[in-house]
Design a protein that fits this description.
- By secondary structure, the chain is α+β, with helices and mostly antiparallel strands.
- Helix content is 46%, strand content 14%.
- It has a single domain, classed as NADH Oxidase, CATH 3.40.109.
- The model has no long low-confidence stretch (mean pLDDT 98).
Length: 209
């Protein structure tokens, strides 16, 4: 199957089979795909929480308006945007570039200037929004990677971010929950899996210039 065929197969899973869990290898593949997701300047302006603790997930389910995916899926993935991006954050990224590519840090002065300017030129609110946009890109990669691996995923915005932040202790970590995804395997009882996918026709969606 091509990736397009697999994207036709996937859907936003509502009911998961609680008896089926991802193997460690499957989970690692999903996380590696997220790690490889593109982000603005490569800053990866977020962290990704893999929530498996049943007690924590029960609390998160309440903060997600009782949606069963939160507790019934194999794992719950929480994308949390950085809220404290500052000069130190930018310099740490340059340190990583120098180390990873084995280059003198001084040779990265131009890149460092661009990174620090991108951070300092934005207000706090703009930086948080910037980070949240990058988290959504990572979510898209997760959804695509899951489909490619035959794993079901349910991306979700229906939750109370403030309550999620409190339950997961994110504020203290300089993070805020942005979007979540349940991953696992669909239940045969999920009526949504039988529905025909509804999408705009191509002539309405695409504009060729």
């Amino acid at each position: 199957m091509s990736l397009v065929d697999k994207l036709k197969w996937r859907y936003a899973t509502k009911k998961f089979d609680t008896a089926k869990k991802l193997t460690q290898e499957q989970l690692n593949q999903l996380l590696e795909a997220i790690q490889l997701a593109p982000s603005s300047i490569g800053l990866q302006h977020y962290k990704v929480l893999v929530v498996e603790n049943p007690e924590v997930r029960a609390k998160l389910r309440e903060a997600a308006y009782g949606q069963p995916q939160v507790t019934d899926a194999s794992q719950l993935i929480v994308f949390a945007a950085e809220t404290n991006m500052d000069e130190a954050y930018g310099k740490k990224f340059i340190d990583l570039v120098a180390q990873t590519r084995n280059v003198e840090r001084g040779a990265l002065a131009g890149l460092e200037g661009m990174v620090l300017n991108a951070i300092s030129s934005r207000t706090h609110e703009q930086k948080v929004l910037w980070a949240q946009k990058q988290a959504y890109i990572a979510l898209g990669v997760l959804v695509s990677a899951a489909a490619d691996l035959g794993i079901d995923a349910g991306p979700m915005e229906g939750f109370d971010p403030a309550k999620f932040d409190e339950i997961l202790g994110l504020k203290e970590k300089g993070l805020t929950s942005t979007v979540i995804a349940a991953v696992g395997f669909r239940s045969e009882e999920d009526a949504f899996s039988k529905l025909i996918k509804v999408r705009k026709p191509s002539e309405e969606l695409f504009i060729h210039v």
